[in-house]
Every structure is written in structure tokens, then in C-alpha cells.
Amino acid sequence: MQTSELKNLKIAIVGAGYGGAAAAKALSLLGAQVDVYEQAGRTREVGAGIGLRPSTMNRFRQWGIFDAIAKVTSPSEYFEILTATGEPIMKEAWPADGEQTHTHLIHRGDFIEALLGVLPEGMVHLGHKLESVRDEGDRSVLAFANGRTVEADLVVGADGIKSVVRKELFSDKGPVFSGEHAYRAVISLDDAHGMVTDDNLRMYIGKGTKVYLLPLRHRGQVSFDITALCPDSAWNPEVTKDGVLATVEGFDERLVAITRGLDMSTVNIRAVYDIDPVDTWHSDSVVLLGDAAHSMLHHQGQGANSAIEDAGALADALRDAPSLKEALARYQATRKPETDKLQAISRQGWSEEEIEDVFPGQKPADAAPKE
Questions:
Q1: C-alpha–C-alpha distance, residues 149 and 30, integer Å
Q2: CB 348 within 8 A of CB 358
Q3: CA distances from 85 to 43, 91, 300, 329, 340 (A)
């Protein structure tokens, strides 16, 4: 689109999470008029750590915010997958993107704070819970629970797995329960029983349970995540310490000890959901982004990265396509095949035998089969 067209483009982003904040930065750099509407009264992220892949960090470099993000991260060289008792299954360097080879490990709270911190003051409007969106072709109208209405040339639905924008305009299918729970905590390195000595992510797999150790050594902490099979589909299930301990029975005794030492009041407990692929992400004046478009299970660690890539691809398309309509079509054509694949792979029930399917060609050739 022409620079003059972009400067006259009024964009309303629904949701101030990773995808919404990243889109706000990328789209504002084009010169567009951008406002972000967030339902929460304050911005905060609970949970644990995530890894920002090399391609994601390169997007931040492109947007001039690499240093703001990197300073609250630990750079990791590789990830490792092991059996429940610590026998190696595979070890692989992170997929490089140009000269960027490290994945940067970061706490979710630090990440959203850093992203929002690089946006102009006044761009994010808190306390705006979306009730409806009306698509009028060349523009759309948002109605919020506080009584405010907003008109925009382009609405970006970055409002998460329970997206109102998606439900109103693109798909009335609800989130899908995975049959798993995630128990996440951030603990002191001193409480990690000597299991964290570098900045590399490790995952232990055994009998339907995956245990992740994601170092946050810049914080003196480690993100400890147990994902385990459970039929309880309540969004916020109630789980006892004994229940969590049962999921790591037979694991390395140090992992059991970490679990035993958890303060359950600090553990984020969630049933794990994703969504089925959405056929269409956009109309002429509304587009989906991030979890609203393609929420996926966390086994590939690609949810936040995909949202950032969406933001970059959307900005690229608006800059390069001759019209808004063509830009949105180009954005979907670029991103949807990738996220469809990631959604499918993330749904695979990982076992030691399935690593080759999930990470093709990456299991060591000389790894002897387990008897």
C-alpha cells in the first residue's frame, strides 16, 4: 500500500497479549493509526517461561526493539529431550535464522512488559471488553462492555483462544480439550536440585507426562512445567500436591524432589486446550492473529513465536500489497499453511518412539532402541 494510504489507515487491535502488542509495534512503524483495546484492567502474565526463537528475535531486530527484549532473557544454544530417568533421546541446536542462532528464554511477564514498554503512551486502552464486532465491508465497528464504540478501517482480532472476533465472524467452534493438564511454576535455581547448570531447555518424557526445565538464569530462576494426562476438562481444575506428584512417579528423583518442594499456591494449574484450524482468517476489514487464529498446544513451544511471526507477516503484507483486501489475503496465504502444520504437530501425543515424527531426522542415528 502507498505510504499515504497507510498513514490514513485506522487500525483497532483487540487484545494486548503477545500478538496484539507485537502487531501494534509492527503496524505503527508503517505509519498507521493504531489503538489497542484490552479487556483487563491491568496487563499481567502468569505462568512460566517461554523460548523466543531466532526468527522471532530477528523480527524484534527489524522493529528496533531487540535490545529491549534481549536484556530480560537468557540466550540458549540448544534443546534436549530425555527419558524420564535422564537418558538422552535427542539434542539439537535451535533452528538458526541468518546470523541469529540463539533462542532467548524469557519469563512471560517480562516478555509482555517489555513488548508493551516499547509502544507509545496512550496506544493501549485497558478495561475494554469486546462484546461485538460488526463488519461493514470497508470498515468495522467494535462495541465494548463499557459502552464505547470504535470504528476502524481494519480490526485485528488478537483476543486469544476464546476470541470474540473469531466467534462473531469466522468460526463458532469452541476450544478443544487435549486431555492434558499443565502445572507451571517458577522456582529458584537453588530449589532445582542441581539440574540447571546452563541456559538450555530440557524436556523429560515418560508415561504420558512431560517435564520441562527452562532456565531463567538472568532471574536466578527456572521455569518448571509438568504436562500430564488428565480427563478433567475444567479450565482451572483443582489439583492436590499428591495429584501432581503422581504424574512424575518413576521420574528422576531430582525432578520428583522439585515437585515435592512446590508451593502449590504459586503453581499455575490449567487444562490444556487448542482450537481446530479456522478456514478463513479475514474479511475485507477484519483479520485474526495469534491464538485467535490458530491456538495450538504448547508441546512445540511455538504459540508466542507464531503470534510474533503473524504480526510481522501482516505488516509485510500491508506494506507490499497494492490494497488492504489483497494484503489480508496475502497474509493468510503466507501464515496459515505454517500454523496448520504446527497445530497438527503439536497435537501429537509425544512418546519416546514418536520423537522422529515430531522432529524428523533429528533423533541420533546411533541411538539404540530401548528394550
A1: 25
A2: yes
A3: 39, 16, 22, 48, 33
How far apart (Å, rounded) are the C-alpha atoms in residues 237 and 250?
Answer: 24
- Composition of the chain by helix, strand, coil, percent to 5: 35, 30, 40
pTM over 0.70: yes
Q: What single-letter DSSP state applies at residue 153? A: S
Distance CA 28, CA 157 (A): 16
| Greatest extent of the chain over all pairs of C-alpha atoms, in Å | 67
What distances in angstroms separate CA 321 from CA 25, 157, 181, 313, 330, one per listed residue? 19, 20, 42, 12, 8
**Total residues belonging to the chain:** 371
Which amino acid appears at position 138 of this protein? D
Cα–Cα distance for residue pair 95/370, rounded to 1 Å: 28
Q: How far is CA 324 from the centre of its chain?
A: 26
Q: In 3D, which of 101, 90, 94, 96 has the Cα closest to residue 78?
A: 94
Q: How confident is the model at residue 358, as a pLDDT?
A: 52
For 66-91, how does the pLDDT look when each residue is reduced to its tens digit (9 = 90+)?
999 999 999 999 999 999 999 999 99
| Predicted pLDDT of residue 42 | 79
- For residue 292, what pLDDT is reported? 97
What does the pLDDT read at residue 362?
A: 39
CA angle 310, 314, 319 (to 5 degrees): 150
Rounded Cα gap, residues 338 and 331, in angstroms: 12
Instruction: Say how far apart CA 324 and CA 11 lie, in whole Å.
Output: 11
Nearest-angstrom CA–CA distance, 169 and 163? 10
Query: What is the mean pLDDT of the segment spanning 135-142?
Result: 94
* Separation between Cα atoms, residue 25 and residue 18, nearest integer Å: 11
pLDDT digits (tens, 9 = 90+) for 183-223: 999 999 999 999 999 999 999 999 889 999 999 988 999 99
19-33: b (≥16 Cβ within 10 Å) or e: bbbbbbbbbbebebb
